[in-house]
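TL;DR need structure tokens for one chain.
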Amino acid sequence: MEKQVLREIPEGREVSIERETFPDLIEKQARVYGKVISGYWMDMGTKDRYRKIHWDLLNRVSRLQIPGQETGNGIWVGSGVEIGPGASLVPPVLIGNHVKIGERSVIGPFSVIGDGCEIGKNVRCSETIMWDRRLVNDSAYLNNCIFGYELEIGSRHILHEAVMNRLGVLQA
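>> reply
TL;DR here they are.
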């Protein structure tokens, strides 16, 4: 999008680009173009659709290349990953570069772990998306969560359907 179009979007509230911005531009007789594409496309504007995009990627519904090396059926692991003794990866799962997974932790199914994350001992993480540089302390239980980058989850925390970023809890 052109910078001029971005300036037209009101600040301080949620905006539907397809229901507000595009119709306003057309009403002002601005040039608005579209392109028909083939293949996979999804608006990821809700937490459920954001998760679905990740799960579709792991299920190979889309043709996007999955980063890392596929080490088993549905397990992708980046470079420099350290997996502790007794830890398990349950497919489908994507582990980014330079991730540390503590002993006896179980990651997956349907988990995406970003680069530089550190996951403690005895952590259970399923149906969860973690952005880069996350710290999950020992014995945490995470299910169906989305975590922004550079966050820390305390020891023995139990989180279900939490959506968090550096600004705080968006939903829990």
